[in-house]
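Marked as duplicate of an earlier ticket. Keeping the data here for the record.
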Amino acid sequence: MIEYFKPSIFSTGTEYVELRYQKAKRTVIVSRNSNIDEVMVGYDSGGSVRIFSKTGVGFSSFNRPEDVNLAIDRALEPSLMLKNPAPLKYALPMKDTYIPPVTKESIPLEEKIGLVKHYSDLALNHKKVAQVEIQFMEKKLENYFLSSEGHEIEEHRLYTLMVFSVTAADGNLYQTNHLTWGTQKGFNFLIGRESEIEDAVKIAVDLLRADPVSGGIYDVILEPTMGGVFIHEAFGHLAEADMFYKNPVLLIKMRVGDRFGREFLNVIDNGRIVGEYGFYAYDDEGVRSLKTFIIRNGIFKTRLHSRHTARILGNDLTGNARAVDYRFPPIVRMSTTYIEPGESTFEEMLDRIGNGLYVAGAGGGETSSELFTFSAVYAREIKNGKLGRMLRDVRLSGNVFETLMNIVMVGNDLKLQAGHCGKMSQVPLPVSGGAPHILVRKMVVGGK
């Protein structure tokens, strides 16, 4: 494909032209209460062109390879009409091919359906289980990137994801729990999850007997899934540089070099963890993915960048320009974002907290600038350093900067989890996130 498109990108005489082309195969299986409700296998292909002229940027997408010159003409026209140039930081032109062996994996569709049905049947064997829903999604991609600067990159990826949801019922009371497994290691990563499903079902059933949490201010220990959602949603998006350069308020509130946490707090975005759902060898501007310390030893070190934001703000490239598919231009997005593990054990955290809450299982939530509200699947009361009764209807809220400063212990038990991220109508973008257990002082907990 690269050789086919090469003549076209040098045809405009403009300052910079880049072209992405993508071939995709998607498989979706949906099961409800052990019935296979949906099986879909779809194929898609297409590309896009971005042109950076001296006056502005133009973008156009296309489906048929033979329409590439038409797409270039369509992108060139608006780029010349604008008076808003978008300078780019220089990126060393790369010529590379990255095809992981797992992308050649060929698992029969019947085997995938069989695993979905097996997990559903397992959960439905339990009393009080009212509904089980499982979604299996697989996406096999061939990505091609070339530019007038000399980039020639071919990268293949295989995303595999399963979302398990169980609802328990007792009369008019319903409680739901869920699990997510996502990987670029192949289908076998999903096999052997029976004990995790049993645990998830038990939590949903136990929540039927749990009391609502009493609202107040608590010291809390966040379970890794909850900590990962906090660091991604509440802080990670604020660290995306395109949130900054048009927002002078954020530029003041988040200045590089300011202290955001204690000396043991490190927050990292790392697109180079092979096999993680958030892994990629190159971003959608042809920049190699990197391990980036956003916070290091409690100090805000850098933002995440595209080539444009890195040039505007005078920072180094981080390889974080990503598009959800060929139909969209790349924007600044996270990859695998997490709190680096520390030295504390979970038992040491329980000893130190004394009385408080253990908050686990991320539900929904929302953020507004530095303010956040997240729901949790459940909490456990902590009294005298011991885990006690289960509580439900748990919501956490606060200011992200105050919360980061109130992290007083970081565990040694990092856990990463796959997910999908949405931003500016671009969803679902594969990402990973996580944290070890963390102890946070004075969190606002909403309940009854």
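See parent ticket for discussion. The radius of gyration is 23 Å.
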